[in-house]
Design brief:
It comes from Pedobacter cryoconitis. By secondary structure, this protein is an alpha/beta fold. The chain has helices at residues 13-16, 32-43, 57-68, 100-105, 126-138, 218-233, 244-253, 277-289, and strands spanning 4-8, 47-52, 73-78, 115-119, 122-123, 144-151, 162-169, 175-187, 190-195, 198-202, 207-215, 258-264, 269-270.
Length: 299
């Protein structure tokens, strides 16, 4: 059974909502999501599931169904504010969604096979998809999950600080801890994170999470229980978010599951600042020149 690619795209809906694709980076307006799906198909994924807001489903289908038809199975699931579906009888006022691990729960009825989760607007590189397919077909089980670990130096912006899940990894490549550092940046030749106006160095080969995770469907049951507790604990905190690293930490600390950190040397691209866009475009142009991608992705 081929694994499934689950794409976190609910936060992108407003940018898709005008019937246009989000920013084009490729020569024919291809988005980062197009390159992700292209790499996933090449690596051996059998299905792609988009997590979106329900009101944008027709827009998404118009953008993706025709180009992906016959190439990979597609499905759409919806992240929303309905807590009753999780057995939570509270009215909790929120203006923004509950976070990435809550978004993943939206796919609990749509996925029955090993799967991986990615962000819609991050460019990860083919190597990461190939390594994840290998893990999901050969190693994954209900107590052995994975995360693609990027070298921190290959994930930064030249235009300001970024937020990164900084990982502590054991000698045998398993995740011991993941800490969200909200201000990671270049400081001369060094890489540092800032906290309370102090700077702390990070070594160049420090592994970070870019939200590229491998699971079995068992994680839905566990996440649902954790989310019920999280929602009740944060009923008066409208900005609290239920992130995937919170689930990972809970599984590790309770000895329920381990996370293998699968290293990649790929360079991550993303647009944290508007000034990053031309760099991403130039990087993709170079990959096309090098023959990694065709000039017209879907033809």
């Amino acid at each position: 059974m081929k694994p499934t690619l689950l794409i976190l795209a609910a936060g992108m809906a407003s940018r898709y909502g005008s019937m246009k694709q989000i920013d084009g980076f490729g020569p024919n307006g291809e988005t980062i999501i197009d390159y992700s799906i292209y790499d996933a198909i090449k690596a051996g994924f059998g299905k792609v599931v988009f997590i979106i807001k329900e009101e944008y489903v027709e827009n998404f289908k118009e953008i993706f169904d025709a180009k992906l038809k016959g190439k990979i199975e597609t499905d759409y699931v919806f992240q929303n504010f309905d807590l009753k579906q999780y057995g939570i009888d509270l009215e909790i006022e929120r203006s923004k969604p509950w976070g990435t691990a809550h978004a993943v729960l939206a796919a609990r009825h749509a996925i029955k096979e090993p799967f991986c989760v990615i962000n819609a607007d991050d460019f990860y590189g083919l190597d990461a998809y190939e390594k994840m397919v290998k893990f999901l077909t050969e190693e994954v089980n209900d107590s052995n999950y994975s995360m693609i670990g990027y070298e921190i130096g290959k994930t930064l912006s030249d235009y300001g600080s970024v937020s990164r899940g900084v990982c502590k990894v054991s000698a045998d490549d398993y995740l011991e801890e993941i800490v969200e550092r909200t201000k990671v940046l270049h400081a001369g030749d060094a890489i540092v994170y800032e906290e309370e106006e102090k700077q702390y160095p990070l070594s160049l080969d420090t592994r970070v999470s870019m939200n590229f995770w491998g699971f079995t469907p068992e994680v839905f049951k566990i996440s649902e229980e954790l989310f019920r507790d999280f929602a009740k604990e944060n009923k008066d905190n409208p900005k609290a978010e239920f992130f995937i690293p919170l689930v990972a930490d809970s599984l590790i600390n309770s000895d329920t599951a381990d996370f293998k950190v699968v290293p990649t040397d790929s360079k991550w691209f993303g647009v944290t600042y508007k000034e990053d866009k031309p760099i991403v475009q130039a990087s993709i142009d170079q990959l096309i020149k090098d023959g990694i991608y065709p000039e017209n992705l879907w033809n």
